[in-house]
Amino acid sequence: MNATQPSDQAASDRAVLRQLAELAESQHWVHHVADLDTGEVSTTPLDRPVVPLSRAERLALSGRWHDLPVIWTTSHRLSPRSPYQTSPLGWMSLYDVSINMPDGEDLAWWSVREDLQPTDDLPGLRAVFDGVPQQRTVVTIRLSGTSSSSQPGQVKVQAFTGGGPGSPITVRAPIPATFDDHMIDVTFTPGPALHVEVFVSLEPGIRLAAFRSITVAAQPILAPPVFAEG
């Protein structure tokens, strides 16, 4: 009896994972700040991971914060291995994930086909969050990726922030040909329903992408100090 041979898909998965591991040896980091109120996106390449103070300074450049937003209160955190939380309610669906996740890794991998068209159903995810904070909020998407050198791709983020019908607000973050770790901070003021729906799509040009997490957080509103008399 012949030994079972690995499937073509498993062999392909291993080849892509090895390629991603090799790319990660020389990766850099990129911080994107997108303001849904204005549609503006700023992109800052970095030679080290994003750290709290400089991240806060870039967020503050939008002029939407009263103070530097260094301290955060996280209300939701979803990832490929934890796509659902009960309180406050949040859930996520991933579309067209093309590579099996290695055991123990909280990642979703995509190997995007070269003939992908903008009119096709794009790979990515949908996340829904209830009970988001009432103050200025940031949705943070963590992923790594690389694009074709001849056609750099973009990550498209669409968000419904009011809980009712209407067109989503769309922003895009560029993904260059280098393999980089991307933090995409999308800031907005929630509507009265405190319900947010987010779509993240990998547009044509992106070759490989690895998604880690999507979170919702806000800067806590601090009460003014109280001074005792005497």
Overview of the molecule:
With 230 residues, this protein is mostly beta strands. It has one domain: Sandwich (Jelly Rolls), CATH 2.60.120.260. The chain is 11% helix and 42% strand. It has two helices and 13 strands; from the N terminus they run αββαβββββββββββ. The chain has helices spanning 8-24, 52-60; strands at residues 28-35, 40-46, 73-78, 84-85, 90-95, 108-111, 124-130, 137-147, 153-160, 169-175, 180-188, 195-202, 206-218. Strands 1, 2, 3, 6, 8, 11 and 13 form a seven-stranded mixed sheet that branches. It has a six-stranded antiparallel sheet with strand order 4-5-7-12-9-10, with no helix packed on it. A hairpin with an 8-residue loop joins β9 and β10.
CATH third-tier fold name: Jelly Rolls
CA-based shape: globular
Largest sheet: 7 strands, mixed
**Strand fraction:** 35-45%
SSE pattern: HEEHEEEEEEEEEEE
Q: Which CATH architecture is right?
A: Sandwich
Q: Helical proportion?
A: 10-25%
What separation lies between the terminal Cα atoms?
91 Å
Give short descriptive properties of this protein.
230 residues; single chain
Give the secondary structure arrangement, pairings included.
Layout: H1 8-24, E1 28-35, E2 40-46, H2 52-60, E3 73-78, E4 84-85, E5 90-95, E6 108-111, E7 124-130, E8 137-147, E9 153-160, E10 169-175, E11 180-188, E12 195-202, E13 206-218
Parallel strand pairs: 1-11
Antiparallel strand pairs: 1-2, 3-13, 4-5, 5-7, 6-13, 7-12, 8-11, 8-13, 9-10, 9-12
Condensed summary:
This protein has 230 residues and is mainly β. The chain is 11% helix and 42% strand.
